[in-house]
Model the fold of this input.
Amino acid sequence: MNPILREPVSRRTLLRQSAVGFGYLALQSLLSADTAASNPLTARVPHFPARAKRMVFLFMKGGPSHVDTFDPKPLLQRDDGKPYPFKQPRVKFAETGKLLKSPWTFRPYGQSGLPVSELFPHVARHVDDLCILRSVHGTNPAHGGACLKLHTGSDTQVRPSLGSWLMYGLGSENENLPGFVTICPTFAHGGVNNWGAAFLPAYCQGTPIGNASVPSETAAVRHIRNPVHGPAVQRQQLDFLAEANREYLAQAGADAALEGRIQSFELAYRMQATMPEAQDLSGETDATRALYGMDNPVTANFGRQCLMARRFLERGVRFVQVTHSDGEVQWDQHGSLFKGHTKNALEVDRPIAGFLQDLKARGLLNDTLVLWGGEFGRTPTAQGGDGRDHNPHGFTIWLAGGGVRGGLAYGATDEYGYFAQENKIHVHDLHATLLHLLGIDHEKLTYRYAGRDFRLTDVEGRVVREIFA
Done:
């Protein structure tokens, strides 16, 4: 006991105050080396050889219609205006009417001959690189619950997001940038929980760049520049703060929250130089900018997001999310399906195709896993005259690169596209498969919290090995 403070003395304090000062110095050196070796941002070895090293999620907020994009239904065209002949879900977001045919035509592309809607003529040219999953399904018909389910595996509780789990399991390959970046995310329908770390360590948290309500041209990490002090003064401040915090830790013992705060301060300091450089597109050629659609005001906003994503990926960021959301209805066309989906597809089609082409040309697509999709699909039945309602019971998500089979359509919905029917893929199965492609056993990636071991897939999840190259 300390005779003055009447408080316990830590082992480090005892060593420092005793006569074995040189021993303490040696111990301090060993502890410093151990701390460096255990830097949470350092890349870690996966459970088994990975097919992909990094991942990007192209999130189409609002729920694009699968039967109008990548899952053609000839019977839906034939039976337009007739009642849906099968039993509908017991729980629905809202009532719908009769069958509504797609206003767009499909045609085959590539050597695989997979059909793609005329909504996506540019992406269609890359269909031989796409693994189209037509039988994904969830349970929640509301945006908030479905978004959380897709991002965190739970639609009812606050849980770590997919990107946070990847950071926890694999770390980062660039200690000067966050390992998890989300570009122009939406604050709606789950908001920050969709890129949050929940009970995982603080370094697993996603770093937002802008949000859905601001143009990507002005999107930046908040307070990335200190308007008062330069790097030298900031370094002195951080060193003083770190010393005070370390002294507290030596007395009080381990404190994960404080350790996370110290790490975040240090990363923020390093990011002042690396983040603006990563976001600076001025060095990109005119040809590259045009490839992403930045020469057209319709595609420039999302194209800039995709180009930033490529730059983050090649700089070692583990997980990047790019969100298409106009801050209004996004892909959520309960009415005016033709107008809304036409607008949305025009904004993203060319940038996504350019992104895939650029990754492939740079040799990044082989070990980068690309995920495209929304929180659910839409009903084959009409709503609001010419719209479609939410449909979590069967929808399409596609993957590219990262060890998946290109030119493949896996699974199927029923004849009209309402329910996943063949080779069904639950959201937990999707998550288990994504983790596996990145070298992680979803049953072993756990974190103990509140007396139990949590994981992204909860107590479910099947790896869909049939889609692996």
User: Anything to note?
Assistant: Residues 83 and 98 are 5 Å apart (CA to CA). The chain has two domains: 1-38, 44-223+275-467. DSSP finds twelve helices and 17 strands in the chain.
